[in-house]
Amino acid sequence: MVKIAVLKETAAGETRVAASPETVKKFIALGASVSVESGAGLLASVSDAEYEAMGASVGASPAVLKDADIILGVQGPDPKALKGFAPGAWLVAGLDPFGQRARVDEYAKAGVEALAMEFMPRITRAQSMDILSSQSNLAGYKAVIEAASIYGRAFPMMMTAAGTVSAAKAFIMGVGVAGLQAIATARRLGAQVSATDVRSATKEQIESLGAKAIFVENVAGIEGEGAGGYATEMSDEYKAAQAELVSSHIAKQDIVITTALIPGRPAPRLISDAQIASMKPGSVIFDLAVAQGGNVEGSKPDEVVVKHGVKIIGYANTPAHLAADTSALFSRNLFNFLSAFWDKEAGEPVLPDDDEITAAIRLTKDGKVVNERLLA
Amino acid sequence: MVKIAVLKETAAGETRVAASPETVKKFIALGASVSVESGAGLLASVSDAEYEAMGASVGASPAVLKDADIILGVQGPDPKALKGFAPGAWLVAGLDPFGQRARVDEYAKAGVEALAMEFMPRITRAQSMDILSSQSNLAGYKAVIEAASIYGRAFPMMMTAAGTVSAAKAFIMGVGVAGLQAIATARRLGAQVSATDVRSATKEQIESLGAKAIFVENVAGIEGEGAGGYATEMSDEYKAAQAELVSSHIAKQDIVITTALIPGRPAPRLISDAQIASMKPGSVIFDLAVAQGGNVEGSKPDEVVVKHGVKIIGYANTPAHLAADTSALFSRNLFNFLSAFWDKEAGEPVLPDDDEITAAIRLTKDGKVVNERLLA
């Protein structure tokens, strides 16, 4: 019987857990045994008893890892802490392969097959396994809620006996999964919402959510869609035109949410100090890319930075601030992945070497780093 | 020329200001001069320069108060700080007459005519002067935003590739102005909203906002509407039935917002410790009445109290957390009041002794306390 181990996260500020009572139950229904480290779900509002009720055993780390075939994590565990597992065990987690490159070597040496869930290809059959998408979705929601919380005014227009309160103007920069959810949430709250992106295909999406699309037009290099639907870097001409557009638009905004990430590279700078200075005092910027270097000049993870009267915020780990929901979706992503490759006769998941998903997410195998993106 | 003085608030945690650039401009258009204490608007995002641009003089407190005919405040100033004003000057502010009863005597002795804006009668022509209503409106909004901020899950139902996130269940207790805005805001954010009140007339209002009305029925003493549309105290039978209804309903809620206040008395207890214990861990209660003794057992102003895994929050001064908007509306309330009584020939406002509003709000005159509610 294949044994699945669920570890308690050890990274600073991490509150999520890689399995929910729901997915534990489903793994057991597939024929696996599940062992959960005591307290693993506590910060995500899941007690040990809830895991036990679904049939998991709960214990200390050594017992959980002993003879484990599959180790689940939100972030990659310290390689030194990985002991006693079955030879060739899978490590299935968000492994931050570019940021934690040295760790990947250690995972190889330790003899685990490390599978980086953030390398999941953006193809239809892998959508339900995509942790970046599920976590970004809730991060986009959270960014707007926190901006609303710190903002000194209300978002919606209110008609009161004492007169009208104007709606807040919110501008979303970068319209991926997080940006789309930020648009939807800001609209829900009654803000007047505009958005921009480097991919012109998003214009329709922005407008379908009822927001105004702010686009540089007639400039070479505007089309920034790279491999797999991710953004790539733009031409210098485009960058200059974008900065100019932003400068004039941003000066009228109350709320700005930036969401621009380029995989494996520092986040692009979208807002300069001079642009911040053009904004009204009391405005709020939420930088969702702050942990990747930041879209906003001077933003700092987990700090409220005030520049020119503008409050700039952003979390080192946004999904960790909505741990109950993000954990539930993250856990489902892992379950959807493993169950899709479950071989009923073998009683365990099997990853065909020639599968597109295998090639994309497998970092290490048989003691070596094997992923193309890391070897390139 | 009548001189209006705008003081910088001195109460702990108070961030609002009693005049906005907009109302300063309007007072001057009526023929008044306006003098603003330096820094008075700073925490509400209004600079001295903005007041000056509208024609106000800005200076230190003694110069601002010197020969002032009307003194505007959000809260009542320290009577000792009131010096140099014109004899019989009006003090127009939220004076907390029951909570600060001793101060009212001091205002009388100091020779000001103290006008308590929270005693404004709930009549049609005074709606635009009603600070309780304008401030409660934004407080109701803020309560939901803060509950959403501290809650570990999202409010709206989300259909994602990794499955569905359920909508939060929010329950609003007390459907006055704050409660209605709380319902509207929680609905905007996508929560599944229910609400209750002691006044059965609110049932239709709750339902018109798309929320579910939770009412004790067929119990004597249910009709709790007192003078002026405010709630009064209920019969014991009603109280018992309400507690039972709440106990069963509340156990299923993720978010509870309590808003019940009875003027001049401690806030009624709506939620007991046992009822908190019946809620799911991770749930959030926002007690809007926390500064008046609290609707929720164990709630503390400006603290996150965790009981049975439930987070209980509430601000000592909720409107102060949305100072830009609340100040703008508060300022309009004061302007609407003064301008309604403006005597163009006299060049100043005149309060007829036989006016319903005069009788309601006037606390002191000619060195004496004259208000019926304080003398009763």
Report on this structure.
- The structure is a homodimer of 376-residue chains.
- Chain A has 376 residues and is α/β, with parallel strands linked by helices.
- Chain A folds into 2 domains: 3-119 and 323-361, Rossmann fold (3-Layer(aba) Sandwich), CATH 3.40.50.720; 132-321, NAD(P)-binding Rossmann-like Domain (Rossmann fold, 3-Layer(aba) Sandwich), CATH 3.40.50.720.
- Chain A is built from 12 helices and 19 strands.
- Chain A has helices at residues 21-30, 48-53, 61-65, 101-110, 131-150, 177-188, 202-208, 236-250, 273-277, 323-340, 356-361, 372-375; strands at 3-6, 33-37, 57-59, 70-75, 90-94, 113-116, 158-160, 163-165, 169-173, 192-196, 212-213, 255-258, 284-287, 305-307, 310-313, 342-343, 348-349, 364-365, 368-369.
- In chain A, strands 11-10-9-12-13-15-14 form a 7-stranded mixed sheet. Chain A has a 6-stranded parallel sheet with strand order 3-2-1-4-5-6, sandwiched between helices. In chain A, strands 7-8 form a two-stranded antiparallel sheet.
- In chain A, helix 1 (21-30) packs parallel to helix 10.
- Chains A and B meet through helix 5, helix 6 and helix 10 of A and helix 5, helix 6 and helix 10 of B.
- Chains A, B: GO terms for molecular function: NADP binding; oxidoreductase activity; proton-translocating NAD(P)+ transhydrogenase activity.
- Chains A, B: The transhydrogenation between NADH and NADP is coupled to respiration and ATP hydrolysis and functions as a proton pump across the membrane.
